[in-house]
Design goal:
It is built from six helices and twelve strands. With 215 residues, the chain is α+β, with helices and mostly antiparallel strands. The chain has two domains: 66 residues, no CATH class; 137 residues, no CATH class. The protein is globular.
Length: 215
């Protein structure tokens, strides 16, 4: 990857090289069993990557930093589409099975995209974290501006599906919700940057109207 790990990428880390004195006890236990983390949308110190660790329950989420030397494998969301296609569906929960339906409906989408959240984590790691009630989270990489009309066609192709499909568009500047973009094309929408969340009307430009800081 030219720019290194990006937000939503899954990383398999060298557990022996991962150290954080501030991590709760469950983090070390979890990584011993499943050494996978997700890249967070946060600025990291030099030589580090901002990562999130998923625990056994929804209340167990930890954000920290991993040394770049601890990275053993990087999996982008778009790479997980091949994993989904090769799955027989046996033992797969509804959100993972539904990914195949989205693939069929989005054949016109030429941009890199793929599952994130619990579905992406499960497909990358092989560790069961989805449930029948899990949403299907998806990220689309959009280096160039998406027309509202094309974005709306993508959203209309998946809206109403159950489990719910939640789509995030990632530009070189920030991330935003596809649904919000197509429903409020003439208004400011919530744009998520590395250190700030703002209200703005152009996800492909530099931020202008600060809404709040995020830690």
């Amino acid at each position: 990857m030219e720019k290194g790990p990006q937000v939503h990428d899954l990383i398999r880390i060298d557990r022996a090289a991962f150290r954080s004195p501030h991590a709760p006890a469950w983090v070390n236990e979890r990584l011993s069993a499943c050494p996978w983390v997700v890249v967070r949308r946060t600025q990291a110190p030099e030589g580090m990557i901002a990562v999130g660790v998923r625990g056994e329950t929804r209340s167990e989420r930890w954000g920290g930093y991993a040394n770049q030397d601890a990275v053993k494998q990087i999996v982008q969301p778009s790479e997980l589409l091949r994993v989904s296609r090769s799955s027989t569906g046996v033992g797969r929960t509804p959100p993972i099975q539904q990914l195949k339906e989205v693939i069929e409906r989005w054949q016109v989408l030429g941009l890199p995209w793929g599952p994130t959240g619990s579905v992406g984590f499960e497909l990358a790691s092989g560790y069961r974290v989805t449930t029948p009630l899990s949403d299907l989270d998806i990220a689309i990489r959009a280096p160039e501006r998406l027309s509202v009309e094309f974005a709306r066609s993508l959203w209309e192709a998946v809206m109403g599906l159950q489990p719910k499909v939640d789509v995030r568009v990632e530009t070189p500047k920030c991330g935003f919700a596809l649904e919000e973009y197509v429903r409020t094309p003439s208004a400011r929408i919530l744009l998520r940057y590395a250190d700030n969340v703002i209200l703005g009307d152009d996800p492909w430009s530099a931020p202008s109207h600060l809404l709040r800081d995020v830690s």
